[in-house]
Amino acid sequence: MVAADFTHLYQQAVADRKAQYGPEHPKVAAALLDLALYLKEQGDKASAAGALQAMIAISKEPVARAEGLLELAALTGVYREVPSALAVLEKAAVIAPSRAVALNNLGTAVEQLDPKLAERLYRAALRAYRAASTDAEYGSVLNNLANLLLNTDRATAAEPLCRRALAIFTGTLGKEHPRTAAATSNLGDMLAAQGKLAAAETAYKQALEIDIAVHGAAHPDVAASREKLEALQAHRKETGR
Fold it and tell me: Is 57 helix (H, G, I), strand (E, B) or coil?
């Protein structure tokens, strides 16, 4: 069954707001953003980019314009405006929770190019989710930030973030879930980087058990988990640690 296309309704909303409020009113900008996000979901990136560019062009409110620039960067893969747009959000008292997923995804996209910028994006996403959140997507941001800290030689700072992400995944998704397995394995990496090899081995064993339960013994993720565990065990045997 072909999904219904509601593009015309979003376009009509833009036209109606222009007629009611004028072509550069904030409510027109908001309607253009809604249109862009819908077009993005439909896979029409070119039209979504056009709607975002129109939204940015009329946005007078700094936070709204910054949100549009970040959405456009995520859509097009052109990141030159990201630092300045992110700086606006960082100064804002509140970041809308609806922006959290986009900030997290953008952080993932730029991490290899600019780890410092990715860290800022992840931290902004955490602010948007609020510190008390137990949502699985909040756990994903924590996990992403923890991995970034690990990859930039900050394993000690990464560990508590990873433990919090793991607790969220276990509580919301259950113990036998791919995200829980991945976070458990990541925790092992952070423990190993700090020289806590016995604790790391326990984490790797737990990750392997979860992967087997989730995927079955022949899955590639199981092979990867087993290889990681066996490598650590060999290292401990060689070093007596």
Answer: helix
Residue type, 34: D
Q: Of how many residues is the chain composed?
A: 241
Tens-digit pLDDT profile for residues 1-14: 556 789 999 999 99
- Total domains in the chain come to 1
Residue 100 has pLDDT above 60, yes or no: yes
Mean pLDDT of the chain: 92
Question: What is the Cα–Cα distance from 107 to 115, expressed in whole angstroms?
Answer: 8
Range of the domain at 186: 133-241
The pTM (predicted TM-score) of the whole model is: 0.83
State the CB neighbour count (10 A cutoff) for residue 241: 10
Let me know if residue 233 belongs to a domain.
Answer: yes
**Least confident segment among 19-23, 131-135, 152-156:** 131-135
Is 140 contained in some domain?
yes
The CATH number of the domain holding residue 156 is: 1.25.40.10
Tokens of residue 156, six digits? 């000690």
Instruction: Retrieve residue 118's tokens.
Output: 């990715």
Q: How far is CA 140 from the centre of its chain?
A: 6
What are the C-alpha distances in Å from 210 to residues 63, 132, 152, 158, 180? 42, 27, 28, 22, 8
